[in-house]
Amino acid sequence: MPFEYKREISFTDQISISEQGTNYILDILDKHQIKATFFSTVVFAQNAPQVIKRIIENGHELASHGYYHSKFESAHLASSKIALEELSGNKINGYRMARMMPVNELEISKAGYLYNSSINPTWLPGRYNNLSKPRTIFSQCDVLQIPASVSPVLRFPLFWLSFHNLPIKLYQWLARRTHKKDGYLNIYFHPWEFTDLNDPERFGFPAYVSRNSGSAMIQRMDSFIQHMTSEGFKFSTISDYLSIVRINAV
Fold it and tell me: Is 40 helix (H, G, I), strand (E, B) or coil?
């Protein structure tokens, strides 16, 4: 992200910030005894082996986020899956393209993935326009597509930026309403969001990116999970969820 705002950040800092943020996330999930899916690049997994080990040992799902975050070749679909399986000792079922960019679904299928979660089915100016894509789970090229959750009708995205910027009670209302309509939620965040991003000289982020980051994000996520579980909602990995709905989704 700093590169997008014309800032330099060392590779060491990139890994360190992501390690720290991932451990904060794992602490929250441990506290509430819930599971999640972690999409990792091979480069991160190679340079943060203890974090990957903790993800696996705590019963979470590891999925592929490509070989690198900064560049992509079709060959990386298969090579990242193989490398992550070797590094983790676990089968890799899912893929998410960096920055939720388009990816060839036939190549995803050839690489052996069961699902792809690279579509944000909304319009984000300057990034993507996926208003023509289905809002909910569908099958393409024998791969289950798991779009990120957006609200019914208006397709308001429930991704990380809205989580940071909306009043938490409004976000919770949108989450409940979307779950009632779709039967599930698929929302995503980044490890660095759980570290303090309010240093303009270091990161150069606008307020809508850095707002409610660091300790505020940790508290916000803890509150969100506590609220949703108190309302009876269940959390799971993507693969565990698909094991229940797969027959109906294809």
Answer: strand
